[in-house]
Amino acid sequence: MTAAPFPVLLVCTGNICRSRMAELVLRAGVTGNAVEFSSAGTLANPGVPMTDEALSTAVSLGGEPDGRTSRRLTRDLVAGAGLVLTASREHRARAVELFPRASAYTFTLRQFARLLELAPLPEVADGRQLVAQVAARRGYAPPAPADADDVPDPYRRPLAVYAAAGDLIGQAVATIAPALRRLR
């Protein structure tokens, strides 16, 4: 009998740019059945497709279109995740507000990558063990300014902002994907 996939939830505001880009790029970088990716937005209007700019940015980073549309972040989505990765500190706060126990497994995307880079992790096969080990590093990392944690919102902004957001997402995914690939 195989274990259920480890659920990773990506969160931004509208669920049509940053969280969807990160979801698509992570999914492409973590193949297999050990991890399941989904996304939601704190203020999302359900059923809206990704912006064309976000989709082309995700594809340029190796993501594959999946046809999913936006959905609103709910308490149940946060509670059901094993790891919540957000586009900003504001989104992290909203996820934890919905389900306070999620503070143990909710990070900004860039914060999680930064904590992973602090030192090599012992070999872990379980997603919850991985998250617990990364969470334990929070007290050992120096505080970071908000701009070190947040991915800027490119919505209705020039393509250069989408590219900048994509670069930050791509850098974080380059660190996070190998750790998630090790899960069984």
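(ticket continues) Second input and output from the same batch:
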Amino acid sequence: MVMRYISTRGLAPAQTFTQILLGGLAPDGGLYVPETYPQFKKSELAAMREMDYPQLALAVLSRLADDMPGEDLRAIIDNTYTPAVYCNGRNDVSTVDITPLLTLEPGLHLLCLSNGPTLAFKDMAMQLLGNLFEYVLADSKQTLNILGATSGDTGSAAEYAMRGKSGIQVFMLSPLNKMSRFQTAQMYSLQDANIHNIAVNGVFDDCQDLVKAVSNDQEFKRNYHIGAVNSINWARIAAQIVYYFKAYFAATHHDEQSVSFAVPSGNFGNVCAGHIARMMGLPIKQLIVATNENDVLDEFFKTGVYRPRDAAQTYHTSSPSMDISKASNFERFVFDLSGRDSARMRAWWAKVDRGEGIDLKSEALFDSISDYGMLSGSSNHACRMETIRDTWEKYGVMIDPHTADGLKVALEYFEPGVPMIVLETAQPAKFDDAIQEALDRTPERPEGMQNLENQPQRYTVMDADIEAIEQFIMTQTHRHKLTE
């Protein structure tokens, strides 16, 4: 039977992987999840242990995208996960290890995910998404206007994956003056005609709200072929599941052993992929959600209350990619936590969409969180600086401020006999100011990125106004058609 996807809010028809690939949100405003999670038996896990990254990706994704011809999926994966694409900064171009596991000390590991073109973990999924989009568009002869929001790394990863691709335009919203100088330059210096950067007067959550509002305007979405690359897009989550399997096999010697993961978290997409890997049978003991000062998720896992915050209550921090106070992918986890009760989800998220909180402790669901192995902790600027210094002095390893948040919280839950794997967010080169403050030195940059901030930049400043955003998309789409 072909895998089908349903909405967390229960009012959209079930569809296949390729049917939901381009769209992002479901028509009822919910997020797509598998109707049932495919399961990997222990015997299957044992057979996967010696696979390389493309082989693992095929083994996992073929269960989730089973409406695609197997040979087509294999070709896309093989074209995506190559040493030539994932060689920035660390790997020699001839290496075959796409996501190397770096052992800091026995049982404590760092999963290196930042070897892609934009030096951030988002490349792991975004490069695949770009190739999947191109495949589906070519097959259907459609065009696509991608609308996305970024707090730092999603934007550049999406733009580098989509630049120059036929039939695709990218409209990326980012909060004005809220990203690092490197992140800003990496996006705004792109001159490709199909890339449009919109700097929004506001915070990331304002950008994300605009993306959701446009996606919920069904007539506009249909007329202008609006698609999504944020982690509301299921394919993003599916691709991220793969590296949890890769890390597990790299950190263990047999399939009876369990591991824990610490995941720097803002929008809950990365750790949501870990939750789904666990639901598919990967032996994960704990998933540790690490936040910065924007600790909405930590507050929930400690109290059972989820209280999204507005722009005025969202802090601008030295780990800016996590400066998020409304975690979109959290809806997917709560859907499972609720027993997949879509009526409850509609009631709860009607409150969330109004900016109100929900109290799952009063709903008698909080105690069942432990069944999913979820823990949490938070970090702040002083902790980040201290963790960056300690990691450099103790291990000779330089980490970025987001990864420092993850490592700081990981150490609070580190237990003997259970490998702890911290997911790396980005290379420290993207955060010069933080590294300079912590270590009094400038991080090295990969070849070709030394003078990125000095390149000409192209972007449009706009207010957080849905009508203005839609008008901009309309204007650029018509202009693009005239130049074809």
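Agent notes: The mean pLDDT is 93. The longest strand covers residues 168-175. Closing as not reproducible unless the customer responds.
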